[in-house]
């Protein structure tokens, strides 16, 4: 087990419809590097995970509602995808405000697949370079981002990837990016 992220706490923002592998694998990489994480959501209890958006893939327990979370308690933010998950998050004022406030801190933010939809809604992508699942790219462009088709894109505080196929590279990149952030608190 590595210690690159020892003492760091990562916020993972997700809700029902999250693509299981896009939450589970990055979270595992973060744990493996010594971080702890809180799963934030728009409701208490558990969130329903999916596989390929269509197949039920179990649940994850919610640690805290995003409405009760404080950006100062976290060193980095992870936004997993799945089609339904970020679509619900971008319709929730508390989730959007948390993302907007988090980005304003300058701390690292990572999003994979459809995850950047919440960043679009928070109006924080203008002038930045991103990648995503192909169907999200038009939304990113319309919101003012430069969009590329690459495995992992790092632009300042943002790290993005296209799909579950990119998870090995994405997980390595977020550990490296999150390790460079100063510890909060």
UniProtKB/TrEMBL annotation:
Keywords: Glutamine amidotransferase
Keyword Ligase attached: no
Gene3D superfamilies in UniProt: 3.40.50.880
Signal peptide start-end: none
UniProt keyword annotation of Thylakoid present: no
InterPro entries: C56_PfpI-like, Class_I_gatase-like, DJ-1/PfpI
Domain named DJ-1/PfpI: residues: 8-177
NCBIfam families (alphabetical): PfpI (TIGR01382)
UniProt record similarity statement: Belongs to the peptidase C56 family.
Protein name: Type 1 glutamine amidotransferase domain-containing protein
Organism: Pseudonocardia aurantiaca
């Amino acid at each position: 087990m590595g210690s690159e992220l020892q003492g760091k706490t990562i916020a993972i923002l997700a809700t029902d419809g999250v693509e299981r592998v896009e939450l589970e694998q990055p979270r595992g990489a973060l744990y493996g590097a010594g971080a702890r994480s809180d799963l934030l959501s728009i409701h208490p209890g558990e969130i329903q995970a999916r596989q390929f958006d269509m197949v039920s893939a179990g649940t994850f327990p919610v640690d805290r509602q995003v409405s009760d979370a404080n950006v100062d308690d976290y060193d980095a933010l992870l936004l997993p995808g799945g089609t339904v998950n970020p679509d619900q998050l971008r319709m929730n004022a508390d989730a959007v405000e948390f993302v907007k406030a988090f980005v304003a801190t300058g701390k690292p933010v990572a999003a994979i697949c459809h995850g950047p939809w919440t960043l679009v809604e928070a109006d924080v992508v203008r002038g930045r370079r991103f990648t995503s699942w192909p169907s999200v790219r038009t939304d990113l462009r319309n919101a003012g981002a430069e969009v590329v088709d690459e495995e992992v894109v790092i632009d300042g505080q943002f790290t993005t990837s296209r799909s579950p196929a990119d998870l090995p590279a994405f997980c390595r990149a977020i550990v490296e990016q999150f390790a460079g952030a100063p510890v909060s608190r």
